[in-house]
Amino acid sequence: MQQTFPISDEELEALATNSIDSVFSTMLERSAILKQVIKIDEANHREGIRLPIDANTPMIAGTVGFLGNLTGIIYIFMELPLAMEATCKLLDMEESDIGVEDHELVNDAIGELTNMIVGTFKNDLSNKGYECRMTIPSILRGSNFSIEPAEVALRRIFKFDCEGRSFVIDVLMKEEN
Amino acid sequence: MRLKVLTVDDSKTVRIIVKKSFKGFDCEITEAQNGVEGLAMAAKVNPDIILLDITMPVMDGVEMLTKLKSDPALKAIPVIMLTAEAGRENVMKIAKIGVRDYIVKPFKEDVLVDKVSRVVDLRPAGEAAPIQKKIDDPIDILVVDDKPAIISQITEGFGHTPWNVKGVSSTGEAIDYCQKKLPDCIIISLSLPEDAAITLFRIIRSNAKTKYVPLFGLSVKTAVEEQARAQQAGFSTIIHKPIDFEELESKIGKAVNLDASGKYFDMGEGFMTVKLPKSCNAAVVNEVSTYLKAKTSEAVNAGISRIIFDAQNVASLNMDVIKLLLHSMKTCRDLSLKYALTGNDVVVEESKKFEESKDWKFCDSLETAKASI
Question: Cβ–Cβ of A136/B55 closer than 8 Å?
Answer without folding.
Answer: yes
